[in-house]
Batch of 2 targets.
Target 1
Amino acid sequence: MALLPDVLGCNGVELQCWRPMLAHSMFLAVRESYPELQQWMPWAQTLPTEDELAAVLSQGDVDFQQDRGWDYALVEPRTAAVLGCAGVHRTDRDERFAIGYWVRTSRTGRGLATAAARVLTKAAFEFLESAQLIVISMDQDNAASAAIPPKLGFSLMGSEDREIRARGHTGHGLVWGLGRT
């Protein structure tokens, strides 16, 4: 059994661990959001096919169950639509975990990424005994993503040089952190 729950409640939507059955709805969300995703996400430099997403979701399910990382789809229960993704990921330090997120273009500006990051931060500290620090990082020009950590009590830890792996990347990132209290 995975360390984190398969489903987490999140402001009227559910965070559901990745499963291949989400591939079609995920594809629709990615296709709609492709111009924005391509700006910031290295994996979105080419539009993935539905079959490619199914394979990624399948591997994500395995990784989730084996506690290598915990990726979730933000799912609207009423329609089963995927509204974005968020996850908790291991880093090179046992006590440090990273959170990432994206929200479907038609659903941005409604607090979903903030709510998902809040729920995942709480879950990481609750279920991952070794978690002492949660970090969120993004390119310095990704203003929408950078607006989220301070809303959750994260402090700016500093900046870092980063590899340019997506169209919007500048090579400079921001790192925000929140310690266990």
Note: DSSP finds five helices and eight strands in the chain.
Target 2
Amino acid sequence: MERIFFDNNATTKLSEAARSAIFDSYKTPLNSSSIHSFGREANKIYNQTKNEIINLLNAKNYQIIFTSGGTEANNLSIFGLPNYQIITSGLEHPSIYDPAIKRKAIITKVNSNGIIDMEDLKEKIDNINTPNFLVSIMLANNETGAIQPIKEIAKLVHAKNGLIHSDLAQGIGKIEIDLEDLNIDIAGISAHKFGGPQGVGALLARVGIDLEPIILGGGQEGGKRAGTTNISGIAGLGAACQNASARIKKNQNLIELRNYLETSLKTIGGNNIIVLSETTQRLPNTSLIATKGISNQIQLIDFDLNGIAVSIGSACSSGRAKPSRVLQAMNIDDTLIKSTIRISLGTDNNKTEIDKFIEVWSKLYKRIHN
């Protein structure tokens, strides 16, 4: 049975360019801390990848700290500013939300479309009782695909002399991102979300922002992140960044497929189908669809038996029994949450695969509703 992968917000297929870069780096014992010719070769890859990140995100005025992935980058953004009050939302990835709660964060409201309540955020910023605060709001949500008004949020934050952090993991390779235009102070990226390898990412912090390290034991990354530098992973990240612009164009072409999928399901299911965050700006590849009367567990199993991979939320939390925190923050009813699946398309997906999905879903729907 041919398998179909519709879970690209969880991870993406390693690109040929990234695979080649990784394998090439493994041909030589490379450690960027060494001062001999092998070390210089490692540093060449290291610096080339930094340049690729700078070019992709317009990050000339940012220090780049390589990490083990988006989770570490996000943790560093929260724990690296220990004297700052944190403001965040219930929409955030667990790698932001959990450490933020540990830091006694203020949680701002969101609306039913999964967008930050700007009036509530402004009120919380106005009422803050410390000059040092960090607002952490992700650029695009991994479950709904909803894109936040980061530029407007940054204006609110900077008007009160605060810092803004944004988790960019879901946006890179799907939409254009310009750090200077968005006016973000700190940002996190993850290679495997856009064709790079798992286990590598980066934190970007505007020059002058002093983050305290959370991993100690060496002087790597300017003293901000100890540990032998993952040169092979960084090589793969660089290749993924180099191909990200072409990937964005392919992702934009997925809008037509995504809309075809959603329209087809609504034609079959009528009022029993709800597309969450449908009326707001979304990532081009993401559909979060609730089917009244059919649990997401039943849907997930049925699709898996038919060779189709979808998810019921964040890959970092979907194994848990409790309902999605993101959808709860949006005040979605628990019954509806438990009937919701996420379809996140990739650049290799096509209409034939969408038609197969519709066929499988239609048979399940008719078995239960007819």
Note: The mean pLDDT is 95.
